[in-house]
Design a protein that fits this description.
The chain is α+β, with helices and mostly antiparallel strands. The protein has one domain (about 10-60). Helices cover about 25% and strands about 45% of the residues. It contains one helix and four strands; from the N terminus they run ββββα. It has one helix spanning about 45-60; strands at about 10-15, 20-25, 30-35, 35-45. Strands 1-2-3-4 form a four-stranded antiparallel sheet, covered by helices on one side. A hairpin with a 2-residue loop joins strand 2 and strand 3. The longest helix has 14 residues, at about 45-60.
């Protein structure tokens, strides 16, 4: 099942003061991507885990 991302201000958060990401919940998982790299999605069981995974993507890119 495909879900459309909700991009209201409440779903956009800063990371390391320079990165913003978009996230949404799908079932029990949180999915998201860095606004600068919308083709690189990741997921986490919690918002904290999602943020860690997004930071990993940022470090790799």
């Amino acid at each position: 099942m495909m879900h459309q991302a909700v991009t209201s201000d409440q779903n956009i958060k800063p990371m390391r003061k320079v990165q913003e990401y978009v996230y949404w919940q799908d079932g029990e998982m949180y999915l998201g991507y860095l606004k600068e790299y919308p083709d690189h999605w990741t997921q986490g069981e919690t918002i904290g885990e999602l943020e860690e995974n997004l930071l990993d993507i940022y470090d790799i890119l």
